[in-house]
Design a protein that fits this description.
By secondary structure, this protein is of the alpha+beta class. Helix content is about 30%, strand content about 25%. The protein has a five-stranded mixed β-sheet, covered by helices on one side. A four-stranded mixed β-sheet has the order 2-14-16-15. The protein binds uridine-diphosphate-N-acetylglucosamine.
C-alpha cells in the first residue's frame, strides 16, 4: 500500500486553491441517471471516488466523457442498460448507494448490493428505504442486497428520524420524477444538498426549500440537458485552514465559501487563530498568535461538521490546555485517537467524547489512515511532529483530496508519496 512520508515542516505559507466538492459531485453524478439528455458537470475534482462513480454510471449504460484533467465530466444516460450495479464497484464507496433513488424513479426498479458498514460506524440505510417505501416502492432486503420496485413512485410526506445527508439526497432524487408532491421533513441542510437541488432544478425539477429542514419536491415528467458548476469543497477548505493553524503558519485559501465553514472559522477564532474573509480568499494566520484550547460538538449542518472532527483534534493536541470533543453524528469516529496517541498526543476517550490535554510534544511514528479525514488529520500532525511520520493506507486520503501532496508541497510541507511498486520516494502528481 502507498504511504505518505511526512517530515516536520516550517510553518505553511502561501496560497492554495480549493477544488470542487467531493460530497456535492457524487450525488450530482448519481442524479444524471434521471435525465436522458446530456449533463455537463464542471469543477469536478479528480478523485478516486469520482472514478468509481464514473465506472458505476458506465456500467448502468450511461455514456461518460471523462475530461477530468480539465475537471469536467459529461454524462448522458440515454438508455439504462441495467438496474443492478455489481458488488465489486458498489462496495468501494458507500456513496454508490445514491444511485438507488434515481434508478428506482427512472426505471421502476433497482437492486443494489448492500454497502456494508465502515470504519466510522454501521451507517445503516433504513431512512433511505423508509422514504422509498412511503413513495410506494416495494422493498426487499436480502442479506447481501436490497431491491426496490414500483410501477410509478408517488409523492409522500416523509419525516426523517435523523437529518441524514444521503437519505435526503436519495429521496429528493427519487421524488423528482414521482407523481405528485413529496415533502421531506427534518431534512439535512448541508450545502451539498442545496447544490444537488440546484442541479436538478436547472434540469427542470421543481424543488423548494433545499437548505432548510423542509424540502418540497413536485414531481415532473422528464428532465432536460444541463451544465452545472460544483461548489467548492468545504472540508478541503477546513483542512487547509487547520493546516495553517497547526503549523502556526499563514495561508490564503482561494475559492473557499466562508458561509460553508462558519463553525470551523468560529472555533479557530475561539482558539486565537486569525481568520480574515478578504476579497482574495480566506486568510488564516496562526503565526505569532497566543493559542488556547476549546470544546467542540459535532452536529448536522450548520453545526460543526463531523468530517472536520479528527482534523481539528490533531490541531488541539498542539494547543496548551484541555479541550473536549463530543461526536454526535457517528458512533465510532475516534479511530484516529490511537494513532495520534502513538505520536505522543494525550487523549482520553469515553464512548462519544474525547478529552485532549494539548501541548504535549508530538513525535514521528508509523501510523495508519483509518478513514479519509483521519488520514488528513495524521498528515497534519506529522507536519509538526519531531522527526518523520509514515502514514499508511493513504488511498483513503486520495479518495477525497485532489492533488493532496502537490497542494501541501506548494505551501512548504515536507511530504512525499512512497509508492509500493518501486519502493522509491516519489512526489505524487
Ligand atoms: C455524508 C457524507 C460524509 C459525512 C456525513 C455526515 C457524502 C458522500 N458523505 O455521509 O462525508 O460524514 O454525510 O455529515 O456526502 N443514518 C441512519 N440511517 C440512514 C442513514 C444514516 O441511521 O438511513 C445515520 C448514520 O449511521 C450516521 C448519521 O445518520 O450515524 C449520519 O449519516 P448520513 O448523514 O446519512 O451520512 P452519509 O450521507 O452517509
Amino acid at each position: 500500500m502507498a504511504k505518505f512520508i511526512v517530515k516536520k515542516s516550517a510553518p505553511l505559507s502561501g496560497e492554495v486553491e480549493i477544488s470542487g466538492s467531493k460530497n456535492a459531485v457524487l450525488p450530482i453524478m448519481a442524479a444524471t441517471i434521471l435525465c436522458p439528455e446530456k449533463c455537463e458537470i464542471r469543477d469536478v475534482p479528480k478523485l478516486r471516488d469520482v472514478d468509481v462513480m464514473v465506472q458505476i454510471l458506465t456500467i448502468l449504460g450511461a455514456s461518460v466523457k471523462d475530461e477530468l484533467k480539465e475537471n469536467k465530466l459529461t454524462v448522458q444516460a440515454g438508455t439504462i442498460a441495467t438496474t443492478e450495479p455489481p458488488y465489486g464497484l458498489v462496495s468501494k464507496m458507500r456513496a454508490s448507494f445514491l444511485i438507488m433513488g434515481p434508478l428506482l424513479s427512472r426505471c421502476g426498479r433497482a437492486r443494489i448490493p448492500l454497502p456494508g458498514g465502515c470504519a466510522i460506524g454501521a451507517r445503516p440505510i433504513d431512512l433511505h428505504l423508509k422514504g422509498f417505501a412511503a413513495m410506494g416502492a416495494h422493498i426487499e432486503e436480502g442479506s447481501s442486497f436490497v431491491e426496490a420496485s414500483a410501477d410509478k413512485l408517488h409523492g409522500a410526506n416523509i419525516y426523517l428520524d435523523f437529518p441524514s445527508v444521503g437519505a435526503t439526497e436519495n429521496i429528493m432524487m427519487a421524488a423528482t420524477l414521482a407523481e405528485g408532491t413529496t415533502i421531506i421533513e427534518n431534512a439535512a441542510e448541508e450545502p451539498e444538498i442545496v447544490d444537488l437541488a440546484s442541479f436538478l432544478n436547472k434540469m427542470g425539477a421543481r424543488i423548494k426549500g433545499a437548505g432548510t429542514d423542509t424540502i418540497k419536491i413536485e414531481g415532473v415528467e422528464t428532465l432536460k440537458a444541463v451544465t452545472h458548476h460544483v461548489i467548492p469543497d468545504r472540508i478541503e477548505t477546513g483542512t487547509f485552514m487547520l493546516a495553517a493553524a497547526i503549523t502556526r503558519g499563514e495561508v490564503l485559501i482561494k475559492n473557499a465559501l466562508p458561509d460553508h465553514v462558519k463553525p470551523v472559522i468560529a472555533k479557530l477564532r475561539e482558539c486565537g487563530v486569525e481568520v480574515e474573509d478578504t476579497l482574495e480568499g480566506l486568510r488564516v494566520t496562526a503565526a505569532g498568535k497566543h493559542l488556547n484550547a476549546t470544546d467542540i460538538k459535532t452536529m448536522p449542518y450548520p453545526g460543526f461538521p463531523t468530517d472536520m472532527q479528527s482534523i481539528f483534534m490533531a490541531f488541539l493536541t498542539t494547543v496548551p490546555g484541555t479541550s473536549n470533543i463530543i461526536e454526535t453524528v457517528f458512533e465510532n469516529r475516534f479511530m484516529h485517537v490511537s494513532e495520534l496517541s502513538r505520536m505522543g498526543a494525550s487523549i482520553k476517550t469515553n464512548d462519544r467524547s474525547a478529552v485532549i490535554t494539548g501541548g504535549m510534544p508530538l513525535h514521528g511514528a508509523q501510523v495508519v489512515s483509518t478513514d479519509l479525514r483521519a488520514g488528513a488529520a495524521l498528515v497534519l500532525a506529522g507536519l509538526v511532529a519531531e522527526g518523520t511520520t509514515e502514514v499508511d493506507e493513504v488511498y483513503h486520503i486520495e479518495r477525497g483530496y485532489e492533488r493532496f501532496v502537490d497542494k501541501f508541497t506548494k505551501l512548504g510541507a515536507k511530504i512525499v508519496k512512497k509508492s509500493p511498486d518501486n519502493n522509491s520516494y516519489n512526489k505524487s502528481k
